[in-house]
Design a protein that fits this description.
alpha/beta; four-stranded mixed sheet; binds uridine-diphosphate-N-acetylglucosamine
Length: 426
């Protein structure tokens, strides 16, 4: 099995560039279904989740050419199926992003129901309630969601009970061809929602308010293909900036908009990290000790749940006690138990983690519990005494391109290597 092996305690400094945002690229790829023809996406990250979305589109009948390391040319004129099977949805829950586009283009969709996953139940009830308001009928059989639109799609006002990213995206895409005006109230405001609305508008949609809690979509008859650049990955950037703050030596991260990490960077400053913001870059450094602070995750512009584990890593070495409250996903503290194996002093009480900062962490064998937790374990390994070996690194591959190479270029002593799988021992 593949593991990442890190020797802690080496200086890390320099510059690193981030790729396009995973969470944007996946939805933009799904949205190409709505504009029959050839759409080109640039700044697409070369990560396994993008490969899976590519398989989903091909299964629907699309043709995809990889024009360069970060450029996908997607021809959706030949899309002729509206079925997304379980084996793909089971590999990646975000495959459900094709629901809205398929309903838009064909008035019908069959998408396997996503199961639970290791960071919580991750239901899709809000997607379904919202789509029903637009006139979509649902039936459920053999593990599939079957959506039909016997009377077409009609604009409506949908108030989301929670500002769900996925539900906002599916609703926005499903309403592009609906008759009249759709209003999404309590919409998610993440930068990836804005990127999707921008591309749909370039394609001919009429969407206003993306990035605010109220999004309005005026129905149009058709969309046309475009060329679009994926927004920079704020979470990849935040991960490297957390590494910089942890180690302390100056680090510059390029290729994203620091405004997309507003609260994260403010919290880093409270923790004693110096932050300099440029137009599409950010520089961090730290001279003094790490200071404790409390964080609570919330939808954007709140503190992102996708930066919770990396930040807990910093707090595990701060000079006092911090409380981390996870409000977005249940079961997102699995990273904490791995960090405890490295000497972290963390107590979990429901959706709170009480973190007592320690003087040092010690390298250990740990398992990546999920994508961000896996990256955060590597952060911990950079400053831990001795060797850290991380297994289950397929989680990290889902969302970080050239993760080991990028850290290595900054000076980390890190390698990806194959070791015998102990589970296969007699
Ligand atoms: C997206 C991101 C993920 C990020 C999350 C929150 C992608 C591929 N993933 O996930 O990285 O952590 O936003 O910023 O873009 N919920 C319901 N019913 C629903 C929908 C959601 O109860 O119908 C709940 C979920 O179980 C979860 C919370 O709402 O507890 C947030 O989910 P949501 O914002 O939809 O996240 P995703 O779109 O799945």
């Amino acid at each position: 099995m593949d593991v990442i092996r890190i020797e802690g305690g080496h200086p890390i400094t320099g510059e690193v560039s981030v790729e396009g945002a995973k969470n944007s690229a996946l939805k933009l790829m799904a949205a190409t279904i709505m504009a029959p023809g050839v759409t080109t996406l640039v700044n697409v990250p070369d990560i396994s989740d993008v490969h899976i979305m590519g398989k989903v589109l091909k299964r629907l009948g699309a043709k995809i050419d990889v024009a360069g390391k970060h450029e996908l040319v997607i021809d959706t004129s030949s899309v002729d199926s509206c079925e997304t099977p379980y084996e793909l949805v089971a590999q990646m829950r975000a495959s459900t992003a094709v629901l809205g586009p398929l309903i838009s283009r064909f008035g019908e969709a069959v998408v396997a129901m996503p199961g639970g996953c290791n960071i919580g139940a991750r239901k899709i009830d809000l997607h379904i309630l919202g789509l029903e308001a637009l006139g979509v009928h649902f039936s459920f059989d053999h593990g599939n969601i079957h959506a039909t639109t016997p009377n077409g799609l009609k604009g409506a006002t949908v108030t989301l009970e929670f500002a769900s990213v996925g539900a906002t995206e599916n609703l926005m895409m499903a309403s592009v061809f609906a008759k009249g005006v759709t209003t999404i109230d309590n919409a998610a405001r993440e930068p990836e929602i804005v990127d999707l609305a921008n591309m749909l508008n370039e394609m001919g949609a009429r969407i206003t308010g993306a990035g605010s809690p109220v999004i309005e979509i005026e129905g149009v008859d058709e969309l046309h293909p475009v060329e679009h650049r994926v927004v920079g990955d704020r979470i990849e950037a935040g991960t490297f900036l957390a590494a910089g703050g942890l180690v302390g030596d100056p680090m510059v991260v390029r290729g994203f908009d620091p405004a997309h990490l507003g609260l994260v960077l403010k919290k880093f400053e409270v923790m004693g990290i110096e932050v300099e913001r440029g137009e599409d870059w950010c520089r961090v450094s730290r001279a003094g000790e790490l200071l404790p602070t409390d964080i609570q995750t919330l939808p954007f512009p709140g503190f992102p749940t996708d930066m919770q584990a990396q930040t807990m890593c910093l707090l595990a070495l701060a000079s006092g006690e911090s409380v981390v409250t996870e409000n977005v996903f249940e079961n997102r503290f699995m990273f904490a138990s791995e960090l405890m194996r490295m000497g972290g002093d963390i107590r979990i009480q429901g959706h709170h983690a009480i973190v007592h900062g320690q003087k040092a962490l010690s390298g250990a064998q740990v398992k990546a519990p999920d994508l961000r937790g896996g990256a955060a374990l590597a952060m911990a390994g950079l400053v831990a005494d001795g060797i850290t070996t991380i297994s289950d690194i397929h989680h990290i591959d889902r969302g970080y391109e050239d993760f080991v190479e990028k850290l290595s270029s900054l000076g980390a002593v890190i390698e990806r290597t194959e070791v015998p799988d102990p589970a296969l021992d007699d």
